[in-house]
Amino acid sequence: MQSKFIVIGILVVTSLGFIWFANRSGSKKISNQVNNIAKLVSPEVFAELAKSKDAFILDVHTPEQTHIPGTNAFIPYDQIGKNTDKLPKDKTAPVLVYCRSGSMSASAAKELASLGYTQVYDLAGGTDAYKKSQESVSLTPKTKAFGTVVYGDVVTTNFTLTNYSPLPVKITWVSTSCGCTKASVEKKELGAYESTAVNVSFDPAVHKDDTDVGDLTRTIFIRTDNPNYPELESTITATVVRKE
Prior knowledge:
Blueprint: H1 2-37, E1 38-41, H2 43-49, E2 56-59, E3 73-74, E4 95-98, H3 103-114, E5 120-123, H4 126-133, E6 136-140, E7 143-150, E8 155-164, E9 169-176, E10 181-185, E11 189-190, E12 194-202, E13 214-224, E14 231-241
Parallel strand pairs: 1-5, 2-3, 2-4, 4-5, 7-14
Antiparallel strand pairs: 6-8, 8-12, 9-11, 9-13, 10-12, 13-14
């Protein structure tokens, strides 16, 4: 009888050991799957991925830094879960995440993967590495849509002018393609890796006629003293209608 209890005891211990091992292996497998979703990419690959219209570019460095041109949102790396409303609703959208050196973005990338995002790209070396190979002076976004604008109303928006280079830049000229659109920069001189707002207003009734009625595109022009980026352009679009 005693030997029977010993055999039963051995079987119970073996079973519990098997369950523990299976659970541990399963947890490890899930963890690896989460980690593997976030892909570490070079500055060159990151810049290429950022060209996609579907890409969502996220800066997670704290304190806030000058963002890579085209960045869609800033969320501190340890507050991703509290700011899901700022993230893409489509969890298959490419999410490009970065910080200054790469440590904060690594943490954020894991969090994004755990939230169900299936295409997470983490910038290797952060902006410290990006600055060495991706110099630019840019006006972003490339276009902004006002949608429907009632003739007589004045609407406003802003763009971001970023000097993503190691040398200072002067803005030498700001203009637009039509008198209905006005643009101004908040700062006319930018230091290295500094940005400023470009404020734009659109008044379709400025000409007092039907010149600015219907589907319209207007362009903002900015000139700089950087010989590699002498002129920058972005556009606004609108459908202007008269009140019935």
